[in-house]
## 1
Amino acid sequence: MTSRENWSEQELIIAFNLYCKIPFGQYNHTNKKVIELAKILGRTPSAVAFKLGNFARLNPVHRKRGVKGWQHGSKLDGKIWNKFN
């Protein structure tokens, strides 16, 4: 699988789990946990880091702080966010 393929719901749930476990500001392609998840999912570390940023854009705590995260997430990102919040 390449980073250009759509994310499945299961992949997004796994990525959201990581989003909940690492602090904001550490969603980058050099983070060891991001790299590990990328290997598991068959994606690039950059793709995983971008997906974590997509979740950050949905977080009301970050929105209140003026943090926007990545602005081009999918509708499925929002569905996963709402499912677990």
Note: The chain has a mean pLDDT of 88.
## 2
Amino acid sequence: MNIASIDIGTNTVILLIAEITENKISKLLNEFRIPRIGKGLIPGGRINEEKINEFLNIMLDYKSIINQYKCEKIFAIATNAFRIASNSQEILNLIKTKTGIVIEIISGELEAEFSFLGVISDLTNLNSNVLVIDIGGGSTELILGRSDKIIFKKSFYAGVVTGSEIFFKHDPPLNNEIIDYVEYLKIIFKEVKIPSQVKTIAIAGTPTTLACIQKGLSYYNEDNVEGAILKIKDIKMLSDELKHLSSKQISDKYKEIVIGRNDVLLAGTIVLYEIMKLLNLSEVTVSTKGIRYGVIYKNINPNYTP
């Protein structure tokens, strides 16, 4: 059986086509688009018409791909941008009318759960605790758990798009803008406590992009990125470099790797570094899995109760 899973974020819209055999998720296709639906969006504001049209075209394209793979089920979930926009339901109604795809807006807590399940869907013999860091466009989720239980999960209003738009008014940002951003992150993450010696896995665009840069890749390759190790000293070095580069300079230097992320990569790198520093983490393992895998995992394991 083939299943389609669509993760609709503030910055990206990602499609996973997977084959399910004996409760195992086997990737057939991953498609990425970066429309930045949440550009300029504030809580209670409206997603603008240009972004709605771009999103509709992506969903029409995805529906065509889904039909080609003869998927028996389609899961589509929307996160922070749709949680805070005042015209979310209008957009969901439009997508349903034009494509037949029903989109569910999920809470930050459920987003965290799906992120965690996406990661463990690819792990075996997970008997010890694992911490998952999911740095999205509009929010960041931290989840601590193991294969049979989620111990802690929380969604924080600190995403790469929101952070960049709220704090960075210059390109590259001024030093005081970076200081203010770091102080904000310290405040919102200060409540987080985790056991020592926990395996930490980072997912989403920031860690995968940093892994590509570290490996010197000229284009994104999921197989080369999966399982990459990012050490805190290397993240600090990349953060210090990015602080002094404009978004254009970042594009010129890293080219295809940073398309759609060149102006938000610094914000995400700072989030990852500050979380690691706060929790005394020396390194994180990068995973290309995430929400879209977690949605399928929960569907094929209905008795899982975190």
Note: The radius of gyration is 18 Å.
